[in-house]
Design a protein that fits this description.
By secondary structure, the chain is of the alpha/beta class. The protein has a single domain, classed as P-loop containing nucleotide triphosphate hydrolases (Rossmann fold), CATH 3.40.50. 31% of the residues lie in helices and 22% in strands. The strands form two sheets. A six-stranded mixed beta sheet has the order 6-7-8-3-9-10, sandwiched between helices. The longest helix is centred in the C-terminal third of the chain and has 16 residues.
């Protein structure tokens, strides 16, 4: 008999806590063959694979944004029992190119003081509320979109290359922020082409290749974009 894992021990005596935060069963998209895996509360899994292999489609399928088949459960609850918007509030998706619908930063946040407490961890000042979206750099938009995603209070966060356009200092700040959120229980799926980053931020690595998703054992290979 194998010894219980730390995650199993954490949930001992509490059936709800013992369930995976996200359970994926035979999920299929146009590009991916059936895939199954679990993601625990506080866990981070890196998703890697060649460009065009279906990594983004996997995240969008989990967020129920694109057609897919199979079953996905959030803490034991089948997503089919939840309206799409309610599901996406709990299983948040941060795309590689986030959208913006208002002219200023602050207009995207219902509670700017609360958002600012998080934004300061990514080196934003208090007056960022009044910054025009049109004048933000790509890196600033990515970091503020991460703050926006966290403000919804998701239980799972799906990240698609959230640091691809950031300088090393900003990358470090984003990784530290996500690590802090994980300590509070946030579960993360993180698409990254950077093998070194995958080793830093992830407990496990899943690789998409030849339309299949499999767990990578040992050193994470360098993946070309």
């Amino acid at each position: 008999m194998t010894a219980p894992s730390a995650r199993d021990q954490a949930g001992h005596g509490d059936p709800a806590a013992a369930q995976p935060r996200l359970a994926v069963r035979d999920l299929r998209t146009d590009l991916l063959k059936p895939a199954s895996f679990d993601l625990a509360a506080g866990e981070s899994i890196a998703i890697q694979g060649p460009s065009g292999s279906g990594k983004t489609l996997l995240l969008r399928a989990l967020a129920d944004l694109d057609p897919n088949e199979g079953e996905v459960y959030l803490a034991g609850r089948n997503r089919m029992t939840m309206p799409g918007p309610a599901w996406r509030r709990q299983v948040g998706y941060l795309p590689a190119e986030p959208g913006w619908w208002a002219e200023t930063v602050g207009a995207h946040f219902a509670n700017w003081p609360a958002a600012l407490a998080v934004a300061r961890q990514l080196e934003f000042p208090g007056d960022a509320k009044d910054w025009p979206i049109a004048r933000l750099s790509t890196g600033e938009r990515l970091r503020l979109a991460l703050v926006r995603a966290l403000m919804v209070g998701p239980k799972v966060l799906l990240l698609d290359e959230p640091t691809a356009a950031l300088d090393p200092a900003a990358v470090q700040a984003v990784e530290a922020l996500i690590a802090a959120q994980r300590r509070l229980g946030l579960a993360v799926l993180w698409v990254t082409h950077d093998a070194a980053q995958a080793r830093r931020v992830a407990d496990r690595r899943l690789v998409v290749n030849d339309r299949q998703l499999h767990e990578e054992i040992g050193a994470c290979p360098a993946i070309s974009r």
